[in-house]
Amino acid sequence: MVDAHGNGHSTGDLGRRAALRRVEIGLSREEVAERAGMAPGYVAYVEEYTPLLTHSAMYRLAQALRTTPDQLLGAADEATPEQAAPPGTRTLVVALTRHECMALIEHGGVGRVAFVDPEGRVPLVQPVHYALIGSDVCFRASAVGALARALTHDGGAHDVGFQADRLVGTPWKGWTVLVTGPATLIRDSREAHAAHAAAPVCPWSAGEREICVRIVPAEVSGHRVSALRPSVWDASPEPRAGLRLAAAGGEAGHG
Length: 255
What we know:
By secondary structure, the protein is of the alpha+beta class. Helix content is 29%, strand content 31%. It has three domains: 14-73, 434 Repressor (Amino-terminal Domain) (Orthogonal Bundle), CATH 1.10.260; 81-92 and 224-247, no CATH class; 95-221, Pnp Oxidase, Chain A, CATH 2.30.110. The chain has a six-stranded antiparallel β-barrel. The model is unreliable at 1-11, 232-241 and 247-253 (pLDDT under 50).
């Protein structure tokens, strides 16, 4: 089955992706239907049977799920190990501006928060479902986990790192964004309720008690990475400022 956009991507998993995205951002089928201007029964039909959608319906569904049609169609799915770049493949690494980085993460999704556990004094990394409210990265987490302990340890802000990345379009092409800054609990109940209403994301690990966390970006950096065919990089001049070449298997850091 080929999608209505004529780009050759199979729609077979569109319903599954739509359902996963809906759960990821904490919406019911009724809420998605209201945002997309669809009947709740039709949203259920899309998730369960994956019909062909018109351009308009696909766009409205993507908007309701705060994502893009390409994401729903699987054009941005991660590469499988079999699709990984062979050893020796060179990649073009382009530094992104702060504005470009924020635009890439504005739709929310899954990211990782890095912090230091005050009890063990060891660095920890925790996956989160996040959303952008204004320019702040917001998410919910367990009130009894390590992150909650870190944020309540000294009663103030706790410096953290947040990273989101994605392979898009074709294998060996993607981006990564790193945000660092103070993370704080949203303690005011009205503010927390407003944040949840604006970005109804679910905590990664469900529990009876939850906290609402805000990261205020202090430093934002990122890179876009794509593979170069040997015929391209063999004849390429020295990389321009802001660009660099890296061998596959090496690290595209944020330095």
